[in-house]
Amino acid sequence: DAPALWKGPLRHHHDFAADDDAIEVKTTLSGEDLVVHVHGLDQLEPPTGGTLALAHLRVDPLADSGRSVPDLADQLSARDPGGRIRSLLAACGFSDEHRESYEAMRFEIVEERWYLVDENFPRLTASSFPGGQVPVGLDDFQYTLDLGVVGAPTLDEAAVDEILARLAT
What is the C-alpha separation between 154 and 18, in angstroms, rounded? Predict the structure, then answer.
């Protein structure tokens, strides 16, 4: 069901979303710190009455044993007879005509952290402002979040599996 749940390329505020649950994915390089970039006040806002998980992946871009974007595109396309994945990849700027240049860069996930984004998780949302209203004249919110110092607990594997199962139902 991942193709139906992947909303990020369609300019949705969450990368994966179902009715009541969503996942936002942030990726950084392994040699960098844990700072991620948040785009907009709604990116870390859980769906009304639902839950939002933040998945942070650190990748090694020099991994000989890693996978390329075309490798992943082929794997996902094989599971998607309707072709939605190829359309979503095109919306992200991926094109098979540039396949060779994409093949040269391989990535390996070296660390994965998941967080529950709730009222205790540090973030900016419309509710951060008095009365839940963004003051007139403020717009285009972008900010950085240092996951290395947020103090929010990471989710264990069982909690992540539960979130993924709930999203897929």
Answer: 22
**Helix axes 84-92 and 69-78, enclosed angle (nearest 10):** 150
Alpha-carbon span 76 to 146, nearest angstrom: 31
pTM value?
0.90
DSSP 98: G
Question: Is the CB of residue 10 less than 8 Å from the CB of residue 1?
Answer: no
CA distance 144 to 41: 12
95: pLDDT confidence band, cut at 50, 70 and 90? confident
CB-count burial class (<10 Å; 0-12, 13-18, 19+) for 92: exposed
Answer whether 50's CB lies under 8 Å from 22's CB: yes
